[in-house]
């Protein structure tokens, strides 16, 4: 069986990619503590160190509450870690910016703007002239399959369509890194698979760096080059699994590919074992 | 601790601003805060004033009490019965925008000057928000709760009293709080319009007679009444509905 | 909305008014109320048309409307500004909160005599009273709307390159618009009521003054006319605000 790491071969901690690509994102001993409403301290993340190479599609996979979204928000600059630091291209991340574009599970579209208005927001913020921004945005909307819906308001769209708009809106300001926080979690299974395919097609075009948070093993394996498995809170990196499956990935082919199946099974088994070892005294 | 002291600090701050402003303006008709405060004991000590105050409070209490007693059942009934709602809704919608205190002269024409007219106006003013909030609260009660009650053998009347009423209580109490605010305002306003007795009357008498200290002292007293009543009501409300989630309907103030 | 729905809504809305008029007419015709105290609707309606065509009456309406608009506008500008500021800036919040908590339950109409003393008996005192009364619902609604803006909207805008100082205008304000406009609607109703009442208490012109004058001369018909006029004005203004609201909030999902 080629490419499938056994448990002993799987590595913990920073990972080096096969070709010497630049490190796009470095997460350096990040820990994060929350204060809950009950005035208690909640350790969400514990000593996370991770390197993400340029152009890599990396999934962060784990059960609910393991802090994976928090990790994403730290990379996004929305949250400052209580310990440690996140860096992009060597520079410390101090706040949000158009180099790291988020796509949220709740879509977070501006309800007072039309679809086109939402997508044009980023370019206009960058100072792009209205006419140019409009042309670019229309092209983007066509690419995500929403031609004809430019003048609709978000409330008139289905969940899947809203997420397409959210994706287009983020792509419109050309971020080098895409931060996706369980973007398909609020959608039904059918729409989810469609959007997974569409996401890969779009990603193939310019191969941005992607950090993709999910709790679905199949989704993680299908989409990514690397799966970062996290433990329950306090979140630590349990294992990093290289996914050595050829691209472009087609769902119909992959579902029948035994290597895909083995990855999924292996990862699920690792989670189960890990859970047991946590439960064992 | 700072948070609890904050409203008191705000009071003192406002009084300070007043004091400084009146000193700066040196206007005869604008007494300083201290002068106004000094006039308060005189007012409270005066027998006539106390009779006026008592009359005001009595009217307010009766108007509020009767309004609440009648409005809550009506609102609850409207909330659970479409027929009752369709019957009363249009009527209430027409009455709502009319300022109740403005009805004073007309009511006075019919009922003469005196307690009845003013109490009636307070009654009308309080009824509407209480009816509306009881209606909204009753309507929002989950059907399934009532089905459970019916399954347990409760009659329609029992369900109303033992399920709908408690469930709608947070909303009802919000309505009562609005009603209380309106009762105070309507009381003062009606007394300012139909000058015969009451706090509003004292205010304008003092204005007419040039006793500006008294005017401003009365404002402080009435203001204190308003704040005091509201605070008391809030305390009672919080205790009665400790179990409910915070209400954000029309924010009356920071809770 | 299709025309049938709109038509049936209108019809439904007319029925209560028609009913009320019918009851009114019945009371007069069947002798339950003497004509001097409750004139028949027909007479009132005729008088109203007469007055509306009368330039003096039109001037009274203009006076009332002017004060209403002035007071309401100031309340909107002040309320939205302070509400937004308090929502985004903790220091301002700490100062504003206690002040609002103290002033909100205070019956602002009690301040009216003070206003009369300070700024005279003309337009200003009424405009200021309207402002004080309409301010708080607008401020509180703005504050509530601005402080409950979805965090991810702000994050999305920041990631798209919006600098922090622009977030207030580009995200918080539009996102809080539904809440702000609800507060404005309440503020408008309050403005209508307060301006009328203030004119009833002391004024030389305006609709409230017309009512009080008619009361003094026992002209029942002339008492109804300004009352109905202010109610109609309130309904029209509210309708206009609703139209503005539906336009501004056309993208927002219905609540």
How confident is the prediction overall: mean pLDDT of chain A? Answer: 88
Main sheet properties of chain A: 6 strands, mixed
CATH superfamily of chain A: P-loop containing nucleotide triphosphate hydrolases
How many runs of DSSP E, i.e. beta strands of chain C?
A: 0
So how many helices of chain C? 10
Order of helices and strands of chain A: EEEHEEEHHHEHEHEEHH
The unreliable regions of chain C are none
Question: What is the CATH class name of chain C?
Answer: Mainly Alpha
Helix content of chain C: over 70%
Counting structural domains of chain C, the number is 1
Low-confidence stretches of chain A: 5-19
- The CATH topology of chain C: MetI-like fold
Question: In terms of structural class, how would the helical and strand content of chain C be classed?
Answer: mainly alpha
Could you give a short account of the major beta sheet of chain C?
A: none
Helical percentage of chain A: 25-40%
Interface with most residues: B-C, 56 and 61 residues
* Cα shape of chain C: globular
């Amino acid at each position: 069986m080629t490419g499938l790491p056994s448990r002993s071969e799987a590595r913990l901690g920073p990972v080096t990619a096969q070709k010497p690509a630049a490190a796009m994102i470095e997460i350096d001993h990040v820990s994060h503590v929350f204060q809950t409403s009950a005035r208690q301290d909640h350790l969400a993340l514990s000593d996370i160190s991770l390197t993400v190479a340029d152009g890599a599609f990396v999934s962060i996979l784990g059960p609910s509450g393991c802090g994976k979204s928090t990790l994403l928000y730290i990379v996004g600059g929305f949250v400052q870690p209580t310990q440690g630091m996140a860096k992009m291209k060597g520079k410390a991340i101090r706040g949000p910016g158009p180099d790291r574009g988020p796509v949220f599970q709740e879509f977070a579209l501006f309800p007072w703007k039309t679809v086109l208005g939402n997508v044009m927001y980023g370019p206009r913020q960058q100072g792009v002239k209205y006419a140019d921004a409009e042309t670019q945005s229309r092209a983007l909307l066509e690419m995500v399959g929403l031609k004809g819906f430019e003048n609709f308001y978000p409330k008139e769209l289905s969940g899947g369509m809203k997420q397409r708009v959210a994706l287009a809106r983020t792509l419109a300001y050309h971020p080098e890194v895409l931060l996706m926080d369980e973007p398909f979690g609020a959608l039904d299974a059918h729409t989810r698979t469609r959007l997974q395919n569409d996401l890969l097609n779009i990603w193939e075009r310019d191969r941005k760096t992607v950090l993709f948070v999910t709790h679905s093993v199949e989704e993680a394996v299908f989409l990514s080059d690397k799966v970062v498995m996290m433990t329950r809170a306090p979140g630590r990196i349990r294992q990093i699994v290289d996914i050595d499956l050829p691209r472009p990935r087609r769902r119909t082919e992959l579902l029948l590919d035994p290597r895909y199946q083995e990855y999924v099974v292996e990862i699920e088994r690792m989670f189960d074992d890990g859970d047991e070892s946590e439960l064992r005294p | 601790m700072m948070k609890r002291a904050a409203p008191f600090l705000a009071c003192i701050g406002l009084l300070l601003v007043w004091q400084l402003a009146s000193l700066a303006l040196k206007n005869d008709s604008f007494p300083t805060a201290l002068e106004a405060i000094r006039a308060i004991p005189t007012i409270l000590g005066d027998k006539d004033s106390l009779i006026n105050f008592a009359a005001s409070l009595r009217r307010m209490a009766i108007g509020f009490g009767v309004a609440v007693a009648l409005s809550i059942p009506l609102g609850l009934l409207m909330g659970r019965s479409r027929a009752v709602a369709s019957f009363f809704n249009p009527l209430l919608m027409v009455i709502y925008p009319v300022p109740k205190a403005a009805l004073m002269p007309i009511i006075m024409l019919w009922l003469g000057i005196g307690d009845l007219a003013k109490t009636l106006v307070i009654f009308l003013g309080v009824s509407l928000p209480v009816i509306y909030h009881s209606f909204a609260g009753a309507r929002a009660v989950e059907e399934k709760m009532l089905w459970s009650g019916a399954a347990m053998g409760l009659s329609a009347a029992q369900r109303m009293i033992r399920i709908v009423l408690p469930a709608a209580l947070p909303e009802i109490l919000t309505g009562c709080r609005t009603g209380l605010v309106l009762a105070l305002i309507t009381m003062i306003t009606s007394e300012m319009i139909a000058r015969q007795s009451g706090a509003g009357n004292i205010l304008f008498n003092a204005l007419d007679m040039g006793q500006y200290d008294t005017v401003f002292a009365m404002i402080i007293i009435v203001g204190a009444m308003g704040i005091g009543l509201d605070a008391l009501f809030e305390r009672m409300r919080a205790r009665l509905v400790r179990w409910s989630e915070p209400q954000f309907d029309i924010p009356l103030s920071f809770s | 909305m299709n025309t049938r729905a709109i038509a049936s809504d209108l019809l439904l809305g007319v029925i209560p008014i028609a009913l009320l008029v019918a009851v009114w007419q019945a009371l007069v015709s069947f002798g339950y109320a003497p004509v001097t105290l409750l004139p028949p609707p027909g007479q009132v309606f005729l008088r109203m048309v007469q007055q509306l065509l009368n330039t003096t009456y039109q001037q009274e309406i203009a006076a009332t409307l002017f004060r209403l608009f002035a007071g309401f506008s100031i309340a909107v500008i002040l309320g939205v500004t302070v509400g937004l500021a308090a929502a985004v800036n903790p220091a301002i919040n700490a100062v504003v909160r206690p002040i609002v908590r103290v002033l909100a339950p205070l019956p602002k109409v009690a301040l009216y005599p003070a206003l009369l003393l300070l700024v005279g008996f003309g337009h200003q005192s009424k405009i200021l009273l309207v402002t004080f009364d309409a301010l708080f619902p607008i401020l509180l609604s703005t504050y509530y709307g601005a402080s409950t803006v979805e965090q991810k909207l702000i994050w999305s805008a920041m990631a798209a390159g919006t600098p922090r100082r622009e977030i207030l205008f580009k995200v918080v304000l539009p996102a809080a618009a539904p809440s702000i406009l609800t507060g404005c609607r309440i503020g408008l109703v309050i403005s209508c009521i307060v301006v009328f009442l203030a004119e009833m208490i002391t004024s030389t012109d305006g609709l409230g003054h017309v009512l009080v004058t008619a009361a003094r001369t026992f002209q029942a018909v002339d008492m109804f006319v300004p009352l109905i006029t202010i109610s109609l004005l309130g309904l029209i203004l509210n309708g206009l605000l609703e139209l503005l609201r539906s336009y501004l909030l056309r993208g927002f999902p219905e609540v």
